[in-house]
Structure formats: structure tokens, C-alpha cells
Amino acid sequence: MRVGLVLPMFSGDPAKVLAFARRAEELGYDGVFAFDHFFPPGAASDRPSLEAFSTLAAVASVTERIAIGTLVARASLRPAGLLAKLATSLDDLSGGRMILGIGTGDPIDRPEHDAFGLPYLDKAERRPHVVETVRAVKGLLAGRPWPGGAWVPPTAGPLLPPPRFPGGPPVWIGGFADEVVRLAAAEADAWNGWGMSIPEFARKADLLRRSAAGSGRSVAATWAGIVVVGRDEDEAGAMLEERFRRNMLETNVWAGSAHSLIWWFEGLETAGASWAVLVPAGPPDRVEMIAREVFPHMGGREVPSHRLKRAKRAVRREVLERRDALPPAEREARSRRIADRLLALPELERAGTVMAFSSFGSEADTRPVLERLAGRGVRLALPRIREGEIRPVGYRPGDPVTRAPFGALEPSAGRELDAAEIDVVVTPGVAFDPEGFRVGYGGGFYDRLFRRTREDAFRVAIGFALQVVPPVPRGRTDEPVDALVTEDEVIRCRRR
Fold it and tell me: In terms of DSSP bridges, do strands 389-395 and 379-386 run parallel, antiparallel, or are they unpaired?
């Protein structure tokens, strides 16, 4: 799932908006979006707001990677032809990063229309108008003239220069009602739901999916809303109370700690969200807090390397402290239970060649594993580090070993095996998550080894239950294991 931010349009300060966009890109956000208001909704007309499309043009000029978009452009503010021209021009200027969100608008927007002499459509008029607007815009983006309808007059085009990519930028339709969801399923590339709970969003996303499938289409579901993120739940609650005291009485605000936001995102993604576009309320450091404390725990995200390293160091330090605190007798008893569970796995029972490791420090003791595998007649190997790579080296308990610089024992002699000879890799680690990702000691040795083993080679990590944490920080080069064995359970992680 991709994560975006809404630009601070109501600051009225272009420099602040551009700095915000640049910082969002640096922190690893996927997009920035502009509200389409002439002044803040519900506020007096003397309050500032930057115009959406001109602001996005400026943002495009100071960023390189992030998507830019409207959330959402009000269909009644601009003729459909102008809307298509603006979108395709921004798409071209940004190198194909534009997302055109379109919506009907709400009654709260009427003062803007009155203040600027713009026509205002009633509720019964807004929906058929946005249908024709989207059809006209999509037609022009595809190189087709719009023949005209009851609300949008004929628009011949063409758009020149043509859209950067066939079909032009993606079009999202925003709205709450089921009718709008069905409209998005029939006409748009995505639907956006504002401020919905996960159950309600899931219901709408399911309706979207089923409606689109009936027409042979695939349409994405996206979420947007205000988030009140605290350092902990108490701070989030205090921030929410402060909003109430200031008469900010929205009922569709999410509030919780940064840790809770991880699970919220996971729930949204499970419900079908491809984007979460945030309006982070409260102190300005919340944008950094979310990137620092939430992004490293989100699967499928490529986290900027400097933040990923910091996040892994923090997890490593915390878990090592817990592991080191285990009394020796307790560690020995737990290690025996791990060995029993590991060796009972069918993949271990039928393996001919197993690469395990020689434990050190406060790791789960692998001596029982090595001795019992050798007793079964299994060919064993231990890792030896050479030139930044793990080299599997044949080993039998009692063979001479030397201590590597980082503490583990390596075979002093023995034949080096090809990685393709290994049936099972038993891997160490500091922290693990139920999806099979791990935080090791920082060298990435096992990730590189896994890419050299056979596709059907079984990867299993062992560790104490206290080493299993919520999603560990991960990067695009991190390789998951197939199973995780603790003293309490076997967790099957991957399906291959």
C-alpha cells in the first residue's frame, strides 16, 4: 500500500508547501495531494488557500519521484475540457506522476461558489454532472472527442501535446455513497473514500470490486483522512480532546499511537486499500514520526536506506537486551524445546544436506541440533564468511573450528559446498516477524545466501519467542524464511 500526504494548502504560503513536498519525498512518502478549495471549507472567505493545479505545477518542479494529485478536484469549478488539459499538462510536466481526483463537492462548498461568482449545482444535479465530466475527461485523455450530454457540452479536443502515456493520468472518483462507488467502478481508475472506518471501507471496496468485475474492469480502492498520531495513546487522546475544545468536531478522524497506525494500515490494506492519503494533525513533526516509526514496519515498501538502518538498529538493541536477560538455565531449557520442534519438521526429516550454524552469546543453543542431525546421517555444513559472502563448509561435530570476528564459530577445514547442494538452511537472527522477515546482525549475509540457494530449498529461522515482534523493518533486498521455530510454536511464513 502506498502512503501519501495532503499538502498544507490552507497555510497560504507557497514556500511552506514546496518545502513540505520536498521533505515528503525525502522521507519516502509516495505522493502529495492538493485540496481543491478557494478558502478552507466552513471558514470565512478571508482565510487563505492556494489553488490546486497551479500549486501542483510548482510541486512538480521541485520533486522527482512522488506522485502529485488532486483530492479531489470539484467537477463544477472547471469545464471538463479545461480539467483534462490541466491534468495532461501536469502529467507531462511531472514526468507521468499526475493523479486526477474528481468529486462532486458538498453543500459546505457553496460559500466558495457564491464568493467567486461560480455556478452551484444542487445535490440532484451534482451526480449526473460528475458522471458526464469524468466521461468527457477520460475520452479526451484517450484521444476521443466528447459528443456532449445534458450537463457537459460537446468537447472536440484534441489535447496537444497528447498525454505522456496512453490513456493519460489515472482518474480517481471520490465520494461516500454507494452510487458514487458504482460510478467509480464503471468510469474511473480508482475510488477514494474519505475518513471511513475499516469495516465501512471494506464494504465499499468489496462493492467496488464486484461492480467493476461485472463490467470486466479492475478499479483500485484508496483511503484518505485526518490522522491524529501520538507518541502513545495518551498523547493521541489529549490531541483529540484539544481538537474538540477548538470546535473541530469531525467524527471521521482516526486517532492513536504511531504503533497503532501500523495495524491500522495493515487493516486498510487487508480491506483492499492501495493508497492511504493522510492529513496528519497536530505538531509538524508527525510527518517525520510516521515515516520513522511506521514505514519500516510496512510490508512491500522500499524504505530509504538511512531510515531502514536506524530502525533495524533500534529493534536489534531492544531484542538483544531481552534475549541477553534470559538466565542460562532458562535459555538451555528453551533451546532444547526449539531443537525438538525443529527436528520434527518434515523438511528436516527428509533433508540430505542441512546448513545450520554454531550459536554464540545468548542465541538459542544449536549444539543439540547439530548432534542429532549428525546422528541421523545428515550431511552438515556451517557458514564461513569470505569476501562478504557465506560459504557453506562441510562439518561434523568435533571438527576443528575457529572464532569469526563477529563471534560465531566457523569450520577451520572441510570441503566448501555449492549453495545449490543445500536442502535446508537453518538461520539465526536477532528479531523475527510472523511473515518470515528477520533482523540479523547487520551484514545481510543470509539474504545474499538465500538468493544463491535452490528455489525449493527450505529456509527456517530459530529463536526464542521473545524475539518475535510485530513486522520488522524491511527493505527490498530482505529475503523471508519459510518457517520460524520458537520454543512455543512453529510459524509457517511463506507459501511457495
Answer: antiparallel
Candidates 202, 185, 201; CA nearest to 193 is 201
- What predicted TM-score, i.e. pTM, was given to this entire model? 0.65
Q: How do 98-103 and 171-174 pair as beta strands?
A: parallel
The answer for residues whose C-beta is within 8 angstroms of residue 5's C-beta and 6 or more apart is 20, 24, 29, 31, 32, 33, 277, 278, 279, 280, 287
Q: Which three cell numbers stand for residue 224?
A: 484518505
- pLDDT band of 300, cuts 50, 70, 90: low
| Whether 463 contacts 434, CB under 8 Å | no
Alpha helices (runs of H) in 258-408, residue ranges in sequence order: 258-271, 286-293, 305-324, 328-343, 346-349, 367-375
Q: Which residues contact 302 (CB under 8 A, 6 or more apart)?
A: 28, 475, 476
**DSSP assignment of 365-386:** P-HHHHHHHHHTT-EEEEEEEE
Contact 392, 414 (CB under 8 A): no
The values of phi and psi at residue 148, to 5°, are 105, 155
**pLDDT tens-digit readout, 150-187:** 999 999 999 999 887 778 899 999 998 999 999 999 99
Tally: H helices and E strands in the chain: 15, 21
pLDDT digits 0-9 by tens, 189-229: 999 999 999 999 999 999 999 999 888 888 999 999 999 99
**Nearest alpha-carbon partner for 339 in 434, 482, 436, 463:** 463
CA 440 – CA 459 distance, rounded (Å) = 15
398-407 long-range contacts (CB < 8 A, ≥24 apart) are 401/358, 406/441, 406/443, 407/360, 407/361
Q: Collect all residues with Cβ–Cβ distance below 8 Å to 122 and sequence separation of at least 6.
A: none
Helices 14-27 and 286-293 pack at an angle, to 10 degrees, of 10
Which helix (H) or strand (E) segment holds residue 255: the answer is: strand 254-257
